Amino acid sequence: MKKLDWYILKRFLTTFFFMLMVIMLIAVVFDVSEKIDDFFKNSAPLSKILFDYYLNFVLYFSTLLSPLLIFISVIFFTSKLASNTEIVAVLSAGVSFQRMLLPYFIGATLLAGSALFLNHWLVPHANVTRLEFEEAYLRSPYRNYDRNIHRQVEPEKFVYFESYNAAKDIGYKFAYEVWEEGILRSKIIGDYARWDSLEQKWLVKNYQIRRYEGDEEFLEKGTDYLQSFNFTPADFERRIDSHTQAMDYAQLTAFINKSKDEGSEYVSYYKLELYNRTALPFSTYILTLIGVAVSSRKVRGGLGLHLAFGILIVFAFIMSMKVSAVYATNAGADPLLATWIPNIMFGVLAAYLYRVAPK
Question: Does domain 149-233 have CATH number 2.30.30?
């Protein structure tokens, strides 16, 4: 690499890490001011606050925000290069605009590659500790507000609750069905099913069991029916966001496949979580190209105008991500396409800005 490449790459990385440090410091200060009463009220140990919560808090949000901070960093230092006529000098010396982009994309590759590793493997494991801290010291006890819960717990085995009380581990209006080649073989119904933590089984109250053998039907009734099923209270006591944030790539992929078999209504949400872990780091390349194309031109207003445009792009990018996510979860759009729509839209914008950028 030439001196110019090292110079641009060094400015790129130092500006990014400086901005990341400042933003994370501000985020921690605001978060402390918001949660300090909870820390004292719940007697959270200082060591857990610092290492279990804030260390992983910084890791999670720095990875989440890195593409947008990279974009602002590129605009910030490239605009300063342009205002000092350094960009003009580079282009006048015979270095092509395409060649000047090389150190930018080397920096983007280093940061995007790190983000991919963090998103898919390291951050989910760090989130386990952070989320356990939040459950212990910050969040209210989980309540399941879902109604008419249907789950496939094994192939051709289905469980139903009209509602579920997570605090008492009780599911009301319980039903359990076993099918075989599309034919109903048995069905258990009861007023409710309560988890017996000592027996590690479900106690079905006021039950009826219907078994079907050929054309014959057998009925059994009773007050208490203690039985093991292939599901536990943990399957109904999960916060959707927390549960998926704490899974690495392999775990989340397996969980999505299991949720498909269960007929979960949240499969689209789980897929968005998985695909975003790749799409967001990839957006680093697109936002880097937009940042260089916009800020390499020396204009009246300089850095302030470039930063204003950059902030506008950031808001538009975040808005497009939110809209596409809602489109996938509520309108039945393909989650993979919805995840990549912002990159496609801003990729087109990047190609246009690159074409009209000063060469």
Answer: yes
